[in-house]
Each structure stands twice: as structure tokens, then as C-alpha cells.
Please model this.
Amino acid sequence: MTVSPAAGPVSASALMTPAARVGDSLAQVDTPSLLLDLDRFEENLRGMQVLAERHGVALRPHAKAHRCPEVALRQIALGAAGICCQKVSEAACFVEAGIHDIHISNEIVGPAKLAMLARLARHARLTVCVDHMTALQDLSQALVEYDATIGILVEIDIGQKRCGVQSIQEAVKLGKAAQRLPGVRFTGIQAYHGGIQHKASHDQRRQASEAAAKRTARFVAAFDRAGLQCDVVTGGGTGTVMFDVASGVYTEIQPGSYAFMDGDYGRLQWGDVLTFAHSLFLLGTVMSTPTPKRAVVDIGLKSTTAESGLPVPAGLPSVQCTGLHDEHLLLLAQEESQRPALGSRVRVIPGHCDPTFNLHDTLVVLRNEQVEALWPITARGYSW
Amino acid sequence: MTVSPAAGPVSASALMTPAARVGDSLAQVDTPSLLLDLDRFEENLRGMQVLAERHGVALRPHAKAHRCPEVALRQIALGAAGICCQKVSEAACFVEAGIHDIHISNEIVGPAKLAMLARLARHARLTVCVDHMTALQDLSQALVEYDATIGILVEIDIGQKRCGVQSIQEAVKLGKAAQRLPGVRFTGIQAYHGGIQHKASHDQRRQASEAAAKRTARFVAAFDRAGLQCDVVTGGGTGTVMFDVASGVYTEIQPGSYAFMDGDYGRLQWGDVLTFAHSLFLLGTVMSTPTPKRAVVDIGLKSTTAESGLPVPAGLPSVQCTGLHDEHLLLLAQEESQRPALGSRVRVIPGHCDPTFNLHDTLVVLRNEQVEALWPITARGYSW
Model:
């Protein structure tokens, strides 16, 4: 090679152009980029808020879906009671952004995390899930040490086979301990079943939601008999909220994906009550057209994920996604004339929004095909 | 709830403890964290370097596997000729870190990217793949504009069915144009087949590598007849390098995963010539033990990926990983006595190292179970 590199150090920022700037037209945005269609997003937020209010149920959207404070602030401005997070460091990012009512929908174990949680509880109204007596005792001790208080939701397993206590007896025992121990306060139950959110049939989701609510109601009644009042019964996700709100069991729903509608949720059968529009897209560029029907796009496993299905090409009904490698997305057109051209730009709907957001530092927010804002995905990477 | 949040703004950094600090014992590292066993890693690096030198082939390890300049600098210190990157912004991070010989093993299309690439070429010896005449012409024009030069590797499709020209005639045409156009210089061929890297049987990989080398050799001969000398014939990955180096066709190999050995490569059948040790782990904490045989660990799709198989528990032969959710890893023990206890720490081998690295900002580098260094994964998120 004859290239003679210039001498001396050079900073990446001097070499690098940001992928998008406020005011850019869509055509100016570099790829891959994560796009939010603001009109559709706002419509989705309003739809869910209206549903919750119609049934007198609190909406506490899950921030694990996006990790972006600007999203959460808009949900709260429309009436959401607060947010859910799954991790303590993640919650800290949202507290910093001015959100002070957070349910950590997960079990928190280990001294470093408990200390972080206790410190956070001095700055926000927090609730957290518990499914084990030792974990509850450790939590209580950490909170006492930091002179803080936290609400306890006993997590019950309503069929997901993940976390959560198995029996009513065990749940009541934990609830009583939460009532008794210092630094913690018994607040209610978390009853979430992730698996049933993704059943394709509307009727199957209804039946599964009803069965879950029935099982939850038995726990609530047992707590009641034991003198433990469940101020909060939280659960439900994007796939079942329309049934959960009507169950009379949940005081609060915690959907997240509804704001974006990923490819996985898009494949479900939806009823008349509630529909959401795809508002989240990956923008890519066709970087290779090696055969008449194949196009290769510069989106890969570094900008989206495949565990809930491949991305879905938007606005290209005769083009199918056939593979997703580290930095390549393979498209196959049914006919040669339908193959996107070299250099053309393609939008795809991510298969699963939660881990896709977690791959990006910035959400490119569009209104009328123009970049209206760049929202930092502040809690990206905050999983401890 | 009775919690009274403290008034006033609060910064996340004030609330948050970093997951690891230099000098920490392994027991002090918070979870989930991405760990590198430095002894095994260094042994892997030496093994591959020795193999390449024994066969007189250049080693140009792929940095897409890790996106971490500290890794690349160690490979170069041992004798690697430079590195491969897949994206321009990714390469810029490595140039900033002082690495000045980079092959971009991918097609680069679009004005913003070409301008970025041309600017980068003023600071580093670059080569890049091309598989289309228009793309080559656009590249040449951008380089002339920035008064820079770049080496061209014509990418040929040797069976992967991704990018790359299909016919010898088309390849030679591109090579001749690269020889003729300003700002670019014909340098050789990229012949990479990702799919065959992962065939489980050693013999099947040998046969596939031999077939790929044979096809590549036909292109090299045609270039030669056309007066185009291939200074570089680059290809090969962790699964086939032992055959690629002996083929007499490749001047350069570009493996990446060998330094870490993920779960996917770990499942392959390996011969006597070359073996690599698992050096990369995710550290997790058991946060729930809801049933006698089930343990739930705080690792999820936000800290590793599932598209190449679930993570593999390390040092727990009777424990199987049965699921990976956004922030939950499900473990199932064969016997109750083998289930990890609540609060205990678990190491798992990630299924696929490349996208796993891309989820972390920091690599926690261990020697003798102590944190010797924290290596920034500088190019994490740089995919444009």
C-alpha cells in the first residue's frame, strides 16, 4: 500500500460525524439509526392512558422497554403514576432525570446492590419485589443502615415459572415479615406473567389473563384474611392489558412495548378495543446487491436482536428478511424489480424493542420526516 | 407509602457505585459484569500468533469480536499485522487508540460514510471491501476529494451468500477499475465464509475450508492472468483457520473469537492442532431460588445474547441454562443439592462473544481472581 498516514495522535471525535443532528431531514440521517415516529408514539401513549383511566387502574409503564427518560417523562405528563424499572442502576438514571416514583419489578440481592438501592430510596418513592425471606431481611437491614424506607411487593408466580413465591402460605409469611421489619413496608403483590403476553391468539391471551387474574385474586384474598391490605396489585403487559384492566384484580398495569410496538407484538392478533401503531424503526442503507433478488443492509446484531424473530421490513411487502449477522441484514425480494437498490434506505421494525433500545445511545425522534430531537437512551447499559 | 424523597436534583453518579474497581477481588465485583481471564486470553493470543507464523501467513484479528482497543493492542504487540473492523465509526475508535493499519472487511456505501472513511484514510493505512462498480466509483471520488488513498479488496462470494461478487469476470472488472481509478489502489481479494466457521465436525470444516480455498484460488489465478497482482488474499475465521493457513491461498487470516472462545465455538469439535480456552465470562448473582431446582440469575438480554445459543454455566456441570429474558437467566439443576444458592455468584460463557461485548462499556480484566484492569470497550455502539 502507498498510503502514508499523517503523523501524530488524532481523536475519534475529530474523525467522526454524528449519525444524526436536530433539524436533519430523514435523508441526512446516517445508518444504522434507531428512529421514533413521534406522532405514532404519542398516539400509542394516549391510547394506553385512556384505557387505564376508563377502568380506574393506574398506568405505570415499564422503562426497561426503552431506558430513555424522555419517553418516561412524556408518559408521566399524560397521567402515568410513575414507572417500572428492572435494575437499581437503571432506576438511578431515571431518578437523576427527575422521575421520583419507581417500582423495581425485580428481586434485588447482594450487598452492593442493596446499598445502592437504599441510597436511591432517600431520593425517590420506591417499591421493590421480594420472593425470599433472607432477601427481605437483608433489604430491611440495608434500609435501616441508610435511614430509608421502601415499599415491598411480594412477587407471586402466576405461571411464568421465573421468580416469585409458589404458595399462598409462603407469600403471606413474607407479607407479614414486610409489615413487621424496619425500613420496609408491605405494599402489595406483583403478579406478572411474561409468557402469556406473546400468545398470538386474542382469545388465548384473554383466557390466560383471566386464569392469571384468578390465581392472583386468591393471593389477594389470603393476604386480606391475614390482615395484610394490598394497596398495589401490579402486573400486566402490552399483550394482555385490555383484559387485565377489566379483571378487577389489578390496581396497576405495567406495559412497556405498547409505546413502540415491535415486530413480535405486531404479529399478534389484536381485538377492537386496543391497537397500537409501529413507532420504532431501524434505518439502514443497502450496502450490497450481489444477486438480482438479494440486498444486504448495514443493520446487524450490533443494532438490533434476533431472539424474538428477525426484523420486519416496513413498507416493502414483497421483501423478506432472511438473516441477521453482526453487521449485515439480508433481504430477499420476491421479484427482481422489488429489490431495494444499492445505496437506498430501508426501514425495518425491530423484532424486540427492549434489547434493541439497549444497543443505542441515541433515539432519533422524527416528526414529518425531520429530526425534531435526539433523546439520549441514558440507562443504556445500566443493568447492575 | 411513607417514603419522603429528599428534595432537589440528584446525579446518578452520586447514587451509583461502579460495578468494579481495579484491585477488587472477584467477590467485590457487582453483577452482571463481563469478565476476562487474562491468563487464558494471553494463551489464546499466543496460540493463534504461533499458528500464523508457522505457516508464513499474516494474522489480522477481527476487532468486531470485542471492540476493545486494549485487546487489539495486545494482539499487535505479539505480531499481528493490524486489525479488521466492520464499520467506519468503529475503525475511527481504533485509530484514535493508536492502531494505524486497519482492514474494513465490509462494503461502505453512502455519502456520509464515504466522507468519514476518506478522512480516516488520512490517518491510517486502510483497506476496504468492494463488490459493486458504482460503490467503487463513489469511493474513489470521496478519496480524491479528501486527497487520501485506500487499498481495495474485491470481495468475492465463496458460498456465504451474503455480500461479494458472484463471477470471476465481474471480480476482474472491479479489480481493473480499482487499478485505474484515482484515490484507490487494487490490493487483492477478501474471501470470507462465515457459515462454515460454525460447522460442528472438524472434518466438515476442513472440507468446507478446502472448497472455499479452491474457489478463491480460481479468482486469484484469473486476477493474475489479467495482470492484477493480489498482494492480499484475506479470509478465514476461528473455526477454519487451521485449514486456511495451510491452503497456500490466503496471505492473511482474520479470526476474532479465538481470543475469547464463546459458547458457540466451544461446542465445535476441535482437532489436535489448535485449541483455545474460554477466557470470557459473564458474572451473575442468583437473585431468586423459587423452586428446589430453579435458580434465577441477574444476567439477561441486556448483558448477553441468545441468537447463537443460550449461555453455558461454567463449572456447574449438572446445571443447565433454560431461558434468557431481558434481565433474567434461568438455571435448572438436575438435583436439588446442585442448585446454586440465593446470593451466590455464577459464571456463564456467553453464546456469542461479538454482540455480548457490544452490550458492555467495560471489560473487567482478572488475574488470579483479582481485577487487574478495566478495559474500556471504546467502540461499543459504533456501528455507522
User: Anything to note?
Assistant: Residues 20-36+277-376 of chain A form a domain with the Lyase, Ornithine Decarboxylase; Chain A, domain 1 fold (CATH 2.40.37.20).
